[in-house]
Design a protein that fits this description.
single chain, 532 residues, alpha+beta, 17 helices, 35% helix
Length: 532
C-alpha cells in the first residue's frame, strides 16, 4: 500500500465522510471551468464541519513535517480562473449542502456552503422569499462568497456581499470560528485569549495600523476583487469585522462551513424588452438614456453570437432576418406589472431611429428564452477549438465601452479570431470567449498571447480584468494586474496571518506565476457543457 493510500485510509478512519485517492475519481476533479487542469492527490467529501476541521488540521500538521498536501475547496466547480483545482487535497462541499433554518419573520436563512443558489431560491420561493442574485443557479453559496462575482442585478441589490450576515469558518489550524462585526470590548476579550483566532485578530490590528495609508489609498480607487482589497471594509469607528476578507478570497484564507444570509420578498417576474441596432453608438446612447428608469438587468450582446447559433439550429425568431450584424440588448424590469409595463413603453419612446424592438408577452415569452439557448450553442458548438473562459467578467467603464469595442475589432485582426462580447451594461462587466484549440501547442501559446494583449486593451480603456471576479491563477497572469510593492506586502501579510503554513489554495491570487499556469494549461477539450 502506497503512502497516499495510507493517508486516505487514515482520514477515512477519522471522518464521517469519504476520502478517495483512486485515479478515476481524482481525474473527475482535475478541471473547473477554466483553461487549466490539475489532478489532485486526494479528493475528500466531508459531511460535517468537524470533518472539514479534521482535514484542515491534518493538512496543517503535514506541512510542519515537510509534506505538502494543501487544500483546495470546491463547490460545483464553476470557477473560471483555476481556483477550484489543485494538486493536493481537493475538498468538495457537495455533501455539506443542507438548508438548516429559514426565519420567515426575520427574513434570515442559515445554510451550509454546498447549497446552490438554485436550491436555495427554490426553497425560499415556497415562502414567498428569495436571495435576489442573478447568477448561475448551480453556483454554491460558498462559491459565491469565495469569488464574490458582480452578478447581473448587482446595481440594484448589491451582490452576495450585501446579504451575508455572519459566517462560521475554519481557520488554517482547524479552529472553528465566527466571522461577524465585534465591538471594541468584544475584540479586547478575544485578543486576550490563547488561541489562533486571538493571534489572528492581534495581527490584523497591527496590519491595519501599519498599512493605514495604503488601505486608505486602496479605498479611494475603484473597487475590484483582486488581492484582499476588502481590507478596506474591515474596520469602522465602532467595530472590527474580518468577514469582508473572505469575499473574493477564493478559499485562500479560511473555509466556510455555515452561512447566515438576509433574504428578501420574492419580486415580481421580470418583464423584458429586446432591442437591436446595426451600430453600437445608437445602442449605447439608448441604454444610457434608460438607466434612470432603474432596470433590473441590461444584457448586451454582439449579434454575431445569434448568427453563429443559427448554424446549429438555434433561431431567435424575435430578431428580423435581415439583421445579421450589430448589437442587441435584453432589458428587464422587476417592478409590479403595471409599473414595469409603463417603463417598457418609456423605453420604446426613447428608441433611436431605425432600431428594432419587441416587448415580451405571453405569445413570445419562449422566444425570449431562445436567446439563452443561442448563447449556450455559441459557446459549445465549434469543431476546431473551444470557447473556454480566459478573462471573463472584465470591468469596462461606460464612457470607454465604445473604445473597448473598437479595440476588440483591431485585436480580432491581430489574433485572427472572432472576439464577440456579452455582458451586463448596468454593472459594466463583459466577457469575451476566443475560439482556441488547446490540444495544439500553438493554440496554448495563442491563449497566453490573447490574455496579454487583451489585458492591455482593458487597461487602455481604464478597466480591470478583475473588475467582476477575482484573479485566481489565470487572471493573475495579466501583465496589467500589478500591485504596488506596499500593496503586495499588505496582501501578503494578510495571507500569512490567516494561513502561516500556506495550506489553503497556494498559487491562487498572490501565488500565481506564469510557468506554473502554463504547465497546467489543458491539452484537450473539457468535458461537459461550457456555460457563460
Amino acid at each position: 500500500m502506497g503512502r497516499l493510500s495510507k493517508l486516505a485510509k487514515y482520514l477515512n478512519e477519522h471522518i464521517v465522510g469519504n476520502v478517495f485517492d483512486r485515479p478515476s475519481i481524482c481525474e473527475v476533479y482535475a478541471e473547473d471551468r477554466s483553461i487549466l487542469r490539475s489532478i489532485p492527490k486526494i479528493v475528500a467529501f466531508p459531511e460535517t464541519a468537524s470533518d472539514l476541521a479534521h482535514l484542515v488540521r491534518f493538512s496543517n500538521q503535514l506541512s510542519t513535517h515537510d509534506f505538502d498536501l494543501p487544500i483546495t475547496i470546491r463547490g460545483t466547480g464553476l470557477d473560471k480562473t483555476g481556483a477550484a483545482i489543485g494538486e493536493g487535497m481537493l475538498v468538495s462541499t457537495s455533501r455539506m449542502n443542507r438548508i438548516e433554518e429559514i426565519d420567515v419573520r426575520g427574513r434570515l436563512i442559515r445554510a451550509q456552503p454546498g447549497v446552490t443558489l438554485g436550491e436555495l431560491n427554490t426553497a425560499l420561493g415556497l415562502q414567498g422569499l428569495s436571495l435576489p442574485i442573478v447568477y448561475n443557479p448551480q453556483a454554491t453559496i460558498g462559491g459565491l462568497i469565495a469569488n464574490c462575482p458582480t452578478d447581473d442585478a448587482y446595481q440594484q441589490h448589491g451582490g452576495i456581499f450585501h446579504f451575508v450576515e455572519r459566517v462560521e469558518a475554519i481557520l488554517s489550524n482547524g479552529e472553528i470560528v465566527q466571522f461577524a462585526p465585534y465591538n471594541a470590548r468584544a475584540i479586547e476579550l478575544k485578543t486576550a485569549q490563547d488561541s489562533f483566532e486571538a493571534s489572528l485578530y492581534r495581527k490584523l490590528q497591527q496590519i491595519l495600523e501599519q498599512y493605514g495609508d495604503t488601505i486608505v489609498d486602496r479605498s479611494m480607487r475603484p473597487f475590484d476583487p483582486s488581492g484582499y482589497a476588502n481590507i478596506t471594509k474591515v474596520k469602522d469607528r465602532h467595530s472590527l469585522n474580518l468577514l469582508p476578507l473572505l469575499f473574493a478570497s477564493q478559499g485562500t484564507l479560511a473555509l466556510v462551513t455555515d452561512v447566515i444570509l438576509r433574504i428578501e420578498v420574492l419580486p415580481p417576474l421580470e418583464q423584458r424588452l429586446v432591442v437591436a441596432t446595426r451600430e453600437i453608438g445608437p445602442m449605447l446612447k439608448f441604454l444610457a438614456s434608460i438607466r434612470e428608469l432603474d432596470p433590473h438587468t441590461i444584457r448586451l450582446f454582439d449579434l454575431r453570437i445569434v448568427e453563429i447559433a443559427k448554424r446549429y439550429g438555434n433561431y431567435c425568431k424575435l430578431l428580423p432576418d435581415n439583421l445579421n450584424t450589430g448589437w442587441f440588448a435584453i432589458i428587464g424590469f422587476n417592478n409590479r406589472p403595471r409599473r414595469a409595463q409603463k417603463k417598457l413603453q418609456l423605453c420604446l419612446q426613447s428608441l433611436p431611429a431605425g432600431t428594432f424592438a419587441t416587448i415580451e408577452d405571453r405569445s413570445n415569452s419562449l422566444d425570449f428564452q431562445e436567446f439563452t439557448s443561442a448563447l449556450i450553442s455559441f459557446l459549445n458548438n465549434d469543431l476546431n477549438g473551444e470557447r473556454a473562459a480566459i478573462a471573463d467578467d472584465v470591468y469596462i467603464p461606460k464612457y470607454k465601452l465604445e473604445d473597448y469595442i473598437k479595440g476588440l475589432k483591431l485585436l480580432e485582426g491581430a489574433l485572427d479570431t472572432e472576439l464577440l462580447i456579452h455582458g451586463s451594461y448596468l454593472t459594466s462587466n463583459y466577457s469575451v470567449r476566443p475560439l482556441i484549440d488547446y490540444s495544439a501547442i500553438d493554440g496554448r501559446k495563442k491563449a497566453i498571447n490573447f490574455l496579454r494583449q487583451y489585458s492591455r486593451l482593458v487597461a487602455d480603456c481604464e478597466g480591470s480584468v478583475t473588475g467582476g471576479s477575482p484573479e485566481g491563477r489565470v487572471k493573475a497572469l495579466a501583465p496589467t494586474q500589478v500591485f504596488s510593492p506596499e500593496e503586495y506586502r499588505l496582501y501578503s501579510e494578510i495571507k500569512t496571518a490567516f494561513d502561516p503554513n500556506n495550506i489553503f489554495n497556494p498559487k491562487v491570487k498572490l501565488g500565481a506565476d506564469i510557468r506554473d499556469t502554463i504547465r497546467h494549461l489543458r491539452t484537450s477539450e473539457r468535458n461537459g457543457i461550457i456555460t457563460p
